Amino acid sequence: MNMRAIYAIYRQEMARTRRTLLQSIVSPVISTALYFVVFGAAIGSRIKEIDGISYGAFIVPGLIMLSLLTQSISNAAFGIYFPKFVGTIYELLAAPISYLEIVVAFVGAAATKATILGLIILATAFLFVPLRIEHPFVMLVFLVLTAVTFSLFGFIIGIWADNFEKLQLVPLLVVTPLTFLGGSFYSIDMLPPFWRTVTLFNPVVYLVSGFRWSFFGQSDVNVVISLGMTFAFLALCLGIVGWIFRTGYRLKN
Amino acid sequence: MAAMHPIISIQGVSKRYATGFEALKTVDLDIAEGEIFALLGPNGAGKTTLISIVCGIVNKSTGTVTVGGHDNVTAYRKARALIGLVPQELTTDMWETVWDTVSYSRGLFGMKPDPAHLEKVLRDLSLWEKRNDKIMTLSGGMKRRVLIAKALSHEPRVLFLDEPTAGVDVELRRDMWEMVRALKASGVTIVLTTHYIEEAEEMADRVGVISKGEIILVEEKAELMRKLGRKELAITLKEPIAAMPEALAGYNLALSPDGTTLTYAYDTQADRTGITRLLRDLDAAGIRLRDLDTRQSTLEDIFVNLVRNGR
Questions:
Q1: Would you tell me the crossing angle of helices A27-35 and A99-128 to the nearest 10 degrees?
Q2: How far is B249 from chain A (nearest CA, A)?
Q3: Between residues 9 and 68 of chain A, which touch chain B (CB distance below 8 Å)?
Q4: Residue B62: CB partners within 8 Å, gap ≥ 6?
Q5: Are B253 and B174 contained in the same domain?
Q6: Range of the domain at B260
Q7: Same structural domain, B185 and B277
Q8: How far is B169 from chain A, CA to nearest CA, in Å?
Q9: CATH of the domain at B24
Q10: By the CB < 8 Å criterion, does A2 face chain B?
């Protein structure tokens, strides 16, 4: 392993985060805070408790997941897309590093950034609603696992995209709807039976549900299934990344 | 260069892009350790493709490339570690500082930090004062230097310069030539591509001419110029003449429109250049001479001839 190369890329990516602090940390925190104000305080106060949890607290895990997913994807996608766009990718391709090392560095940086952001949002949540975390360790596992999985997913999008429009396409058209329909703002038990079944095909349901379990000890879906589904998606992303690098897809002519 | 010790060996390399475009036909080329090799060719001849294949940026369709004896696919880490590449386009991360970007390049090549080396590289390229500046604030010439600094940050044994002086002012071009000579003196092998003949002529030990994806000639520069070089003898006359005298009709002479200069083209490789006889016959024809001047054809003349004739 060329650890120095991994560290060099990781550091460069983290430096980019520092340079764009406002956009990468502050803006998601503000938008999440707005969700808390609107859904938690304003609307939430008129909604009855769900499974004995106040609505304000109920939406916290979903909101964190929402930011975690979008940020993981956009960080990793942009991280690898940008060198392709400006041409600095030549240096990565000509360096004595393996594809695995490139992935570890880019995905590691994107996941780090997303995890930090998730924790900041969690801290912000404490300011708005009384919260308890029953399984802090499981919560961290879900946080990191989701960040890594969706950073990998973002990395794939970044490689696939050959223009800025495509870079935005998947996050906007696929990920955001899936997240909103993934039980961030409601329990899927509240849906009619038919839609409840449909919802079970949405991978985000498992993430939100498992994550919520780590907070409140109760969830829509069994936490083991949630964890299993997350690992399955991780494995799928790893498989695609492996294929990309074997074929040099969109990287090498 | 008979007993050549190649640091780069390119054997049977070809490249056909997915579009079907054949960028390289079969290329065989050895680069000797420590030499300056100029790959000369018109735009679109395949220079950048060839370099990109050696550096691992483009996959070749056939053939093998070794760098320092290491296959650039099966032993890519060892092969690539020896190479520094300065690309043709000014591709840099605009928001980084000069110091950060060269540190990054060194790390990418797996080398432990060495601020003293980086300082030397930056000083040699007159970038030391700019080390804390963001790259976006630098001029085009300075950005070019940054790319060179990045390539030198990891102490390569072979430096590829892809069109290093394209769009660069005269001063920087001179600086760059100086730097290349200093690098050669320190034992670094240099491969540069260019379509400026002047550059190859000024710097190279050997010249390869590439045209339409084929290396049509590889020769030591001096030998090339000697072999293909034609000389012209310009004879300035004391009195202008209206027409070529009968006695000189057998020579391949050209008379200038104003009748004051005769130009005689001859091959330096021929057994007899015919100069002695020509001068005698000029004297016999009663023509008085004011001046004689010979001119060696440049690499450019040779190059244009080669590419025009296809071989």
A1: 40
A2: 59
A3: 9, 11-12, 15-16, 19
A4: B12, B13, B14, B26
A5: no
A6: 230-298
A7: no
A8: 23
A9: 3.40.50.300
A10: yes
- The region of weakest confidence among A70-79, A172-181, B246-255, B293-302 is B293-302
Contact A97/B at CB under 8 A = yes
Into how many domains does chain B fold? 2
The per-residue pLDDT for B2 is 42
- SS3 call for A53: strand
**Calpha distance A210→A120 (Å, rounded):** 20
* Sign of the dihedral through C-alpha B76, B77, B79, B80: positive
Q: Do B107 and A252 touch (CB under 8 A)?
A: no
Q: Give the one of A12, A90, A92 whose C-beta lies nearest to B87's C-beta.
A: A90
Give per-residue pLDDT as tens, B94-131: 889 999 999 999 999 999 999 999 999 999 888 999 99
Considering B181, B200, B226, which residue would you say is the last residue of a domain?
A: B226
- Whether the CB of B159 is below 8 Å from some CB of chain A: the reply is no
By the CB < 8 Å criterion, does B58 face chain A? yes
Q: Please give the structure tokens belonging to residue A188.
A: 């899927």
Picking from B81, B92, B110, the nearest residue to A88 by CB comes out as B92
Give pLDDT tens digits for A219-234: 888 889 999 999 999 9
- Contact B109/A at CB under 8 A: yes
Among B226, B249, B273, residue at a domain's last position: B226
CB–CB contact A95 B17 (8 Å): no
pLDDT digits (tens, 9 = 90+) for B22-65: 999 999 999 999 999 999 888 888 999 999 999 999 999 999 99
